[in-house]
# Entry
Amino acid sequence: MYINDAQREQYRNEGFMILENVIRPDQVEGLREECQRNIDKYDAEMEAKGVRVQGINHYKKRYFIPRRGMESPIITDFLFSELMGDICRATLGDNAFLFHEQYVVKFAEVGTKFGWHQDSGYIGHYHRPYLSCWCALDDMSIENGTVSVLPYSAIGMKPDDLYDHEIEAGSNDKIGYQGDHPGVPALVPSGSIVVFSSRTFHRSGPNTTAKVRRCYLAQYSAEPIMNREGTDFWAQAIPVLQDGKLCRPDFAAT
# Structure
């Protein structure tokens, strides 16, 4: 419905595709409102504790807000929408699970960069590639730190290649590519989605503008991803597609 053959082929051959203006304006606004509600919650907690850092969140600088989807009807409707189902079918096949989701927010003039990495590099053991959907909630530019992706052909990698990553001093980010290829920056309007494999190298720059930069990252897998011991899910595994049909979970918002 949303994805053509050329985009499917680019995803298979190069590890990514860019879908512009595919998220409905009302969904974009709803995701923004939920983002701000959660930022306000984090701010209130840090203010009450008298701290500027809570976990990896930095007061008025950067926020990682994970796993809010199942407590918000607005986010849940988006995660299990026809749009996301179509993306999963085109990339993962007829069976898909919600693996992880989070907001990533870089505040004006202080948002930090992230170096080249594969999302799979953070799992810590081998697994089938999963899917990352980087959803732009603001117009994206080089100046505000949009995501850039590295095509497979740029470094001669195969779709299942998993590279060693090293911890970067100072940021504690994992880095898996040290080359000089600039990648492909996603210069897209809000409501667009950058779709890439968990094996695809990507990075983002600092936000040097006067406005906040918000994105919502939704990740899906073709099968449950387990921990190293195989005793539990690494994150979560909520059915989204079963035999090609979209699943809509029952939940109670809290």
Remarks:
- Residues 118 and 201 are 5 Å apart (CA to CA).
